[in-house]
Design a protein that fits this description.
With about 425 residues, the protein is of the alpha/beta class. It folds into 2 domains: about 5-145, Sandwich (Jelly Rolls); about 160-400, EAL domain (TIM Barrel), CATH 3.20.20. About 40% of the residues lie in helices and about 25% in strands. The chain is built from 15 helices and 17 strands. The protein has helices at about 60-65, 85-90, 95-115, 125-130, 135-155, 195-205, 205-225, 255-265, 280-285, 285-300, 315-320, 330-335, 340-355, 365-375, 390-400; strands at about 5-10, 15, 25-30, 35-40, 45-50, 55, 70-75, 75-85, 160-170, 175-185, 190, 240-245, 270-275, 300-305, 325, 360, 380. The strands form 3 sheets. An 8-stranded mixed β-barrel has the order 9-10-12-13-14-15-16-17, surrounded by 6 helices. The longest helix is centred in the middle third of the chain and has 22 residues, at about 205-225. The protein is elongated, with a radius of gyration of 26 Å. The protein starts with a strand and ends in a 16-residue tail after the last helix. Residues about 115-125 have low confidence and may be disordered. The structure holds ligand C2E and calcium ion (2 copies).
Length: about 425
């Protein structure tokens, strides 16, 4: 699936790559220093020293030409290896313009190096090189690092799901939860999905993360249901919303996997909601439609996440089998101060009702916001005012002991302030 970066240790004097060899990988130095050598008339000539954070051997990996230099550890080193296959996969999915620019830059860079490497003396130092690191370079390196660590995180069970309650505000009952991923890093503490999900999406590792989220959600949905104080829930079973990403639908075995997992854990399909964003649907509408039809056939609920932010035309709502719209929190936030946002929220709620879809208002932070959307006819709310995302234990306790907050008596739809 995503066999990508591996960590390698080198002893002092070890050769990381040799001049003239085929470039099947690149390295990012994590610790220690290496020297770059070229051989002239049989004699090695040191042309540079590189330290932590340096990227080495990328050119031969990109353009498939022989290595132009030898890299040797001058002390014990640790380096992340980026395989050619991983790189090729990333390039494959890149924009054609990016591909072209990369090719041109690589050629220019090779030319330049060919012209200058024997002139540049004394050799450049790690500090000088660091100066030349541009922002893009740093972003690329941090992506590679996060990806490498993320792979370990899944194996070391540092990834976990938090659960944020979704409340039926028409009768003040707990309807379900959204499962939100967290990375409990041993040194850096809790890492937000905003940091690692994009990296996982880019590297293809998201498919493993989504399966993991589905596993854990399927495991815990029955536990949440079993913990319920009957007074706090409605008649329908408690659901858990799981976030899915662009690449998940390309996973040919996804539905077979979901079927197997639900059966294994004894979970009803309606207890799992697949949350996907509009942009996912639009990126590959045919694939998405096929996938959503498979959801529908199985009774899995499909929710459109961040509704209103991604796509300007609403006609797609007829095209795809969709069960729920989640109104993006930016509209909720602006609703009380901007009339246009209020109109938008109202329209989305009306639209959903006319199309027989459910609506969840996301990011409800105040009683006032909750009352407004409820008065507009919105069924479900999710947000800090009700509860923040919490670990499983706290969510089980929430199912037993939640104290529904007081809201003003409902007004007629449309008469909200
Ligand atoms: P999202 O799917 O839109 O999730 C809602 C985000 O809003 C969550 O942030 C949640 O903690 C936050 N939130 C909820 N109520 C409030 C509120 O009242 N006020 C404010 N300001 N924020 C609120 P979180 O957990 O940081 O997740 C961020 C995003 O990361 C998610 O946005 C989702 O796109 C992605 N994500 C999280 N877990 C997963 C996952 O398991 N798989 C995938 N593919 N993406 C995930
Ligand atoms: Ca979501
Ligand atoms: Ca959202």
């Amino acid at each position: 699936m995503s066999e990508t970066t591996t960590k390698k240790k080198f002893k002092q004097g070890d050769i990381l790559m040799r001049e003239g060899d085929k470039g099947d990988c690149a390295y990012v130095i994590e610790s220690g220093n290496v020297e770059i050598l070229v051989h002239r008339e049989g004699q090695p000539l040191q042309i540079g020293v590189r330290g932590p954070g340096s990227l080495l051997g990328e050119m031969a990996m990109i353009d498939d030409k022989p290595r132009t230099a030898t890299v040797r550890a001058i002390e014990d080193c640790v380096a992340l290896e980026i395989s050619r296959d991983d790189f090729a996969r990333r390039v494959e999915s890149a924009d054609p313009v990016v591909k072209m620019v990369m090719r041109v830059i690589t050629n220019r860079y090779r030319d330049m190096i060919g012209r200058t490497q024997f002139i540049r003396f004394p050799p450049s130092t790690a500090a000088e090189d660091a100066e030349h690191d541009d922002e893009l370079h740093n972003i690329a390196l941090s992506t590679i690092k996060v990806h490498h660590e993320l792979k370990g995180a899944l194996e070391k069970k540092e990834l976990t799901l938090f659960y944020q309650p979704i409340i039926d505000v028409q009768n003040m009952k707990i309807a379900g939860f959204e499962a939100l991923m967290r990375w409990q890093h041993p040194e850096k503490g809790m890492i937000s999905p905003g940091v690692f999900i994009p990296v996982a999406e880019e590297s293809g590792m998201i498919v493993e993360l989504s399966r993991f989220a589905l596993d854990v959600a399927a495991e815990n949905a029955p536990k949440l249901q079993a913990a319920a104080n009957p007074e706090l829930v409605g008649k329908k079973p408690i659901f858990v919303g799981v976030n899915f990403s662009v690449k998940d639908f390309a996973d040919a075995d996804l539905f077979e996997y979901i079927d197997g997992k639900l059966k294994e854990k004894g979970v009803k399909p309606e207890q799992i909601h697949l949350e996907i964003t509009e942009s996912l649907l639009m990126e590959a509408p045919e694939t998405a439609k096929e996938a959503l039809e498979k959801c529908r056939a199985r009774g899995l609920d499909v929710s459109i996440d961040d509704f209103g932010t991604g796509y300007s035309s609403l006609s797609y709502l007829h095209y795809f089998p969709i069960d729920t719209l989640k109104v993006d929190q930016s509209f909720i936030r602006a609703m009380t101060t901007h009339h246009a946002s209020m109109v938008l929220v109202k329209s989305i709620i009306t639209l959903a009702r006319n199309l027989n879809m459910k609506v969840i208002a996301e990011g409800i932070e105040t009683q006032h916001e909750a009352e407004i959307v409820r008065n507009l006819g919105c069924e479900f709310c999710q947000g800090y005012w009700f509860a923040k995302p919490m670990p499983l234990d706290a969510a089980l306790d929430f199912m037993k002991n939640w104290q529904p907050p007081r809201m003003e008596a409902p007004r007629r739809a449309g008469s909200g302030k």
